[in-house]
Write a structure and sequence with these properties.
Order of helices and strands: EHHEHEHEEEEEEEHHHEEHEEH
Number of strands: 14
Number of domains: 2
Number of helices: 9
Largest sheet: 7 strands, mixed
Shape: globular
Bound molecules: pyridoxal-5'-phosphate
CATH superfamily of the largest domain: Type I PLP-dependent aspartate aminotransferase-like (Major domain)
CATH architecture of the largest domain: 3-Layer(aba) Sandwich
CATH topology of the largest domain: Aspartate Aminotransferase, domain 2
Low-confidence stretches: none
Strand content: 5-15%
Distance between the termini: 23 Å
Structural class: alpha/beta
Length: 357
């Protein structure tokens, strides 16, 4: 079976096996990672090592903190404005899908977020950067690098004229090299590309640690978390440990450069099949911003045919292909842990289904 769910998503099989093998006794400690104190030297080493691996994989400069937080991506919809909007009270949002729209809405509780371009009726394109109205006084410019639901991904870094850039990379972090120095802050829930649900990684530049609104809860405060090495309170220990193992797997498999090469190969395969299917399969996303992680498509634009597609896919051992409840259709999520050979097998099924229907 291959699981193409959007998140929580497939983890590398070797990582799951390793977790299974050391679940009762982590490294000769006679204690399970599920039981171990977060203040123990063993666990503190796991935190330090996992940060070091993240720094190595993404070449994170020294003037950025790497934090492990809780509350998921949704927690950061509040965490970002709580920590950053205090500088001027204003923030700019580039809205290209459901998740950035939700983030902009949540920010209204803490200041004055503004959309840099009108929100389209349906998502599937990035508004032309030449048309964005950016406020030089914004505390930050926010965008979602990969919209998981609609399958819209930025293949460029937005230019903000010196205003700190904030990115939600929940569904594409560690799938490509990133020039961290172009960002003020990047965050990502772990449950797609880097581990189980429960931990959210935040990469934040040092100079942005000092603008939090006084009401910022300590558990969402970047400054508090940075000062206490992500151990202000009991962290999601198991999730952090598992993220460390996934980082090892990425390092052993050629790093983020190889993840990007595979992502291009896997997504090209699926989009080519869709485009050459004479309208049997359709993608509503503009080719310039099609996601390499989430490939949503319709089958004959017909829900009945899509139900049949999902049923036959399951019988062929392909799981988790149902589109997000808000948009319907089919969605193949092809994060790092999905191997090119597995996408190639899905591609054969997609071709056969079209031929038979
Ligand atoms: N941002 C993106 C891009 C997502 O895909 C998701 C969830 O799928 C979220 C934010 C929300 O994350 P969470 O469910 O961890 O709150």
């Amino acid at each position: 079976f291959v699981y193409f769910g959007a998140g929580p998503a497939k983890l590398p099989t070797t990582v799951l096996e390793r977790i299974q093998g050391e679940l009762l006794d982590l490294g000769g400690s006679h204690v399970s990672i599920l039981e171990m104190s977060h203040r123990s030297p063993e666990f503190m080493k796991i935190v330090d090592d996992t940060v070091a691996k993240a720094r190595k994989l993404l070449n994170i400069p020294d003037n950025y903190q790497v934090l492990f937080m809780q509350g998921g991506g949704t927690g950061q919809f509040s965490g970002v404005p709580l920590n950053l909007i205090g500088r001027t009270g204003k923030a700019d949002y580039i809205v290209t899908g459901s998740w950035s729209a939700k983030a902009a809405k949540e920010a209204e509780k803490y200041g004055q977020p503004r959309l840099v371009a009108p929100k389209p009726a349906t998502f599937g394109a990035i508004p032309d950067p030449a048309s964005w109205s950016l406020d030089p006084e914004a505390s930050y410019v926010y965008y979602c690098d990969n919209e998981t639901v609609e399958g819209v991904e930025f293949h460029f870094v937005p230019e903000t004229n010196g205003v700190p850039l904030v990115a939600d990379m929940s569904s594409n972090i560690f799938s490509k090299p990133i020039d961290i120095s172009k960002y003020g802050l990047i965050y990502a829930g772990a449950q797609k590309n880097i581990g189980p649900a429960g931990v959210t990684i935040v990469i934040v530049r040092d100079d942005l640690l000092n603008h939090a609104l006084p009401i910022t809860p300590n558990v969402l405060s970047y400054k508090v978390m940075a000062k206490e090495n992500s151990l202000h309170n009991t962290p999601p220990c198991f999730a952090i440990y598992a993220v460390g193992l996934v980082f090892d797997w990425i390092l052993e498999n050629g790093g983020v450069e190889e993840m990007e090469r595979r992502a291009i190969e896997k997504s090209d395969l699926l989009y080519n099949l869709i485009d050459k299917s004479n309208g049997f399969y359709t993608s509503v996303v503009d080719p310039s911003c099609r996601s390499r992680m989430n490939v949503p498509f319709r089958v004959k634009k017909d829900e009945k045919v899509e139900e049949k597609f999902l049923k036959e896919a399951k019988a062929a051992k392909f799981l988790g292909l149902k589109g997000h409840r808000s948009v319907g259709g089919i969605r193949a999520s092809i994060y790092n842990a999905i191997l090119p050979e597995q996408v190639s097998r899905l591609g054969s099924f997609i071709e056969e289904f079209a031929a038979n229907n």
